[in-house]
Amino acid sequence: MIRKPRSRHAHDVGFTLLEAIVAIALLGALMVPLYSLMSRNLDGLFRVGEANMRSELQLNALSLLDTVNPMDRPEGSMPLGNYVVSWKSTPVTAPVDGVGFPAGQSLYQIAMYRTDVRIFRQNARGDIAPFMTFDLRQIGWKQVRQFRLPF
Cβ of 149: how many Cβ atoms within 10 Å? Predict the structure, then answer.
């Protein structure tokens, strides 16, 4: 009996080395744009997170400075978590007598102030570095009269 030679293709199962290298190269070429896209998205998410954190910090500083009377305390600083809020107020208008209700003068003098606010961040080593600044307009007041009963 004569043996019939088998076809070479019948025994070839799997990939050759060349096919595997080509597949890896194509996969790598497709992954580069995908990696670039992911990198840009992550960078954008980081920037959005930073902007949100700055906005929240500014709102917290505004809430803190809402309790400060610039006529009584024109400059100072207060801690706010890992941050320090510092301010310096300068008068924009001269103090004027307030108007009482329904008529007459009030018990207070008021003036408009421009407040320069600086926020400093404290790092893990305890060093304090400037973080952000903004301007604020505030009303200052001072009691200059005592209340008198009309009778």
Answer: 4
Distance CA 111, CA 104 (A): 18
DSSP per-residue string spanning the chain: -PPPPPPHHHH--S--HHHHHHHHHHHHHHHHHHHHHHHHHHHHHHHHHHHHHHHHHHHHHHHHHTT--TTT--EEEEEETTEEEEEEEEESS--EEEEPSSSSEEEEEEEEEEEEEEEEEE-TTS-EEEEEEEEEEEEEEEE-S------
27-48 per-position pLDDT tens digit = 998 898 888 888 899 999 999 9
Nearest Cα residue to 106 out of 95, 119, 93, 97:
97
The answer to whether the pTM exceeds 0.90 is no
Q: What is the sign, positive or negative, of the torsion defined by CA atoms of 18, 19, 22, 24? A: negative
